[in-house]
Amino acid sequence: MISTILLIIILNGISAIVENFIQQTSGWTIYPPLSAGDGIEQEIEPKENNFGILSSVLFYTQILLLIFLTFCGFKTGLNYKRAE
Known about the structure:
By secondary structure, this protein is mostly helical. The chain has a domain at 1-23 and 51-84. It is built from two helices and no strands. Helix 1 runs antiparallel to helix 2 (50-83). The longest helix is centred in the last third of the chain and has 34 residues, at 50-83. The chain starts with a helix and ends with a helix.
């Protein structure tokens, strides 16, 4: 149970770093080259940010670990009551 709590804390720190990196890189603008001046503007779609996916994976991993920690605490409580 202690290792699960420590893992959740570590994942929370990694998630905070990833969120800060997402905020820093989300404001980038890509301008079209000047040589493409045919008068036809092509829309440039931004690439999907893999850090957003990583952030979501970290969040759901933390949720699963919290559910597992709750389950372990419940089972430990049941075993403790039986031992008395």
